[in-house]
Amino acid sequence: MIHIIENKISADEYNYLNNSVGWGFREISIVEEALKNTLYSVSVYDDNKIIGFGRIIGDKTIFLYIQDIMVIPEYQHQHIGTKIMNKLIEQINEYKNINPSIRTYLGASKGMEPFYEKFGFISRPNNDLGAGMILY
Ligand SMILES: CC(C)(COP(=O)(O)OP(=O)(O)OC[C@H]1O[C@@H](n2cnc3c(N)ncnc32)[C@H](O)[C@@H]1OP(=O)(O)O)[C@@H](O)C(=O)NCCC(=O)NCCS
Fold this sequence. Notes:
This protein has a single domain (2-117), classed as 3-Layer(aba) Sandwich (Aminopeptidase). The protein contains four helices and five strands. The protein has helices spanning 11-20, 28-36, 80-96, 113-117, and strands at residues 2-6, 40-46, 49-58, 63-71, 103-106. A hairpin with a 2-residue loop joins strand 2 (40-46) and strand 3 (49-58). The termini are far apart. Residues 21, 69-71, 76-82, 108-109, 111-112, 114-115, 118 line the site of coenzyme A (COA).
């Protein structure tokens, strides 16, 4: 049965999901630190098997960032990504009780913009905003 658990994922599960979507493995200690510093996360399981994940990082009141939305290939296109996003948006709405102007960013993978547009995200650059930028 497919079910969601909040704020609980192991570094091994995270690496398993990352690798399944083609992003590879990271050192366990690095993943553990990243997960420890995560504000909120959603893990999706089919019985005991992890099949999807998403998380929010940020300062809770002014800026948030959605990261690591992933569903293993065998379960994609079954609206599991949508379930994950809906839970994250619910949590963002909680933060909005503290500051209604809180801003949430994300970096879409190439071609994935339509998935995020369904939840109200807009692409940059536009008339008001410059391009999103990244430092590697
Ligand atoms: C992106 C991802 C999380 C979507 O999860 P999913 O469970 O397959 O998505 P859903 O079934 O909830 O899709 C909802 C809608 O998003 C859009 N969508 C989903 N996957 C898409 C894709 N690969 N490209 C473009 N639009 C997509 C579709 O409009 C879809 O609606 P539809 O089913 O009515 O056509 C999943 O494909 C994934 O893990 N991909 C690999 C990792 C990745 O790229 N993550 C995003 C990083 S920015």
